[in-house]
Amino acid sequence: MIDPVSLLVDLVRTPSPSGDEGRAAGVLADWARAHRLEPEIDDAAVRLVVGGTRPGPTLLLASHLDTVPPGEGWSVAPYDGVLRDGRLTGRGAVDAKASVAAMAAAAAALAAAGGPAAGRLVVLATYSEETRDTTMPRALERLGGAPEAAVVGEPTSLEPCIAQRGQLLVELSWTGDQVHAGWAAGRRPAPVNAISVAARDLVALEGLRFERQHPLLGPVAVNPTEIAAGVARNVTPPICSAMLDIRTTPAYEHAEIVAMLRERLAARVEVYSDRLVPAETPAGSPLLAAVTRVRPASVPFASPTCSDWVFLRHLDAVKLGPGDSRRSHTADEAIELEEVRAGARLYADIAREVLR
Questions:
Q1: What is the pTM of this model?
Q2: Residues 147 and 252 in one domain
Q3: Helix locations, the chain, DSSP H
Q4: Would you state the torsion angle of the CA atoms of residues 76, 77, 79, 82, taken in this order, to the nearest 10 degrees?
């Protein structure tokens, strides 16, 4: 097996915050050429393609090169890629450069062995996944046909994730009467206070019940995360607004949830973002069966985090990669190197099992 560690270290030592992935893409492409692959680079992704000896399906291994900014609280420089005691520490080590490196190593190993028995393996390393400007949709359009199956490279500790929550962002707004607070108590009719109306609605959210629950993800979760109101401390507010972060499941369409909010609340309900719909592996998935055959001890699970799986949700797909998702976006983000090597072996084994 070709070792992915040197590539991972070089990628972590190459800063690639969302929107600035060019140098990291070059690192990946140079590594691929050195391992007798022919990378294709454009404004959507780095693509590595390994063809089989006869026609067959396309298996997609998809991850992303961008990272969130380093933030604060690090004990080491976030882009130094510190190696210590078999562990690599640095921004992107877990999310998701370990998956990129392991996928590239799997592709190189298959190519060195003459390719898969049938079909083709495609590795996609896309950009800006951590933002709403992800290039995954554009990269998929350029594949020349939809793949039959896809593995989304995100940290799952090498266990197959078979369902993930979506995210629906909804803005609520309420209007009231702007008057001098000193005169408000004596006015008839009493002025409408936008904050008071908002408070009643926000309390009512606690009583919102979603009867349909996903067997792995449970119920839809609604949380107010931002609120804004007020002109001055002695003026009743004419407007109040709040943002709801709604973590959705495949049990409900986003439009259903929005309709429920509009029915139950006094607020004006506007959708801020609904692109991150939930995803799940289809029942009877041949891909999941292949993963289980090559890794019999696999424990399928559901994830609360979103990913580019949303753009592959109509395919037979799982989310799977090295690293602990709880370390994503944290200070001192780190990964065990042996897990990255195991990830490369697992990706290659899955490819051989699917493309046979």
A1: 0.91
A2: no
A3: 5-12, 22-34, 97-112, 136-141, 181-184, 194-205, 254-264, 286-294, 337-354
A4: -30
AA identity, residue 278? P
Task: Provide CB contacts within 8 A for 218, sequence distance 6+.
Answer: 249
Select the more confidently predicted residue: 132 or 293.
293
pLDDT band at 186; cut points 50, 70, 90: confident
- Do residues 153 and 61 lie in contact, with contact meaning Cβ atoms separated by under 8 Å? yes
Task: Output the DSSP codes for 206-252.
Answer: TT------BTTTBS-EEEEEEEEE-S-TTB--SEEEEEEEEEE-TTS
121 & 235 share domain: no
Residue 181: predicted pLDDT: 87
Q: Would you say 46 and 30 are in contact if contact means Cβ atoms under 8 Å apart?
A: no
| Final residue belonging to a domain, choices 226, 249, 275 | 275
> Do 28 and 105 form a contact (C-beta atoms < 8 A)?
no
Give the number of domains in the chain: 2
Can you give the residue range of the structural domain that contains 295?
5-164+278-354
| Mean predicted lDDT score pLDDT of the chain | 96
CA dist., res. 287 & res. 297, Å (int): 16
**Using one digit for the tens of pLDDT, what is the confidence trace for 211-233?**
999 999 999 999 999 999 999 99
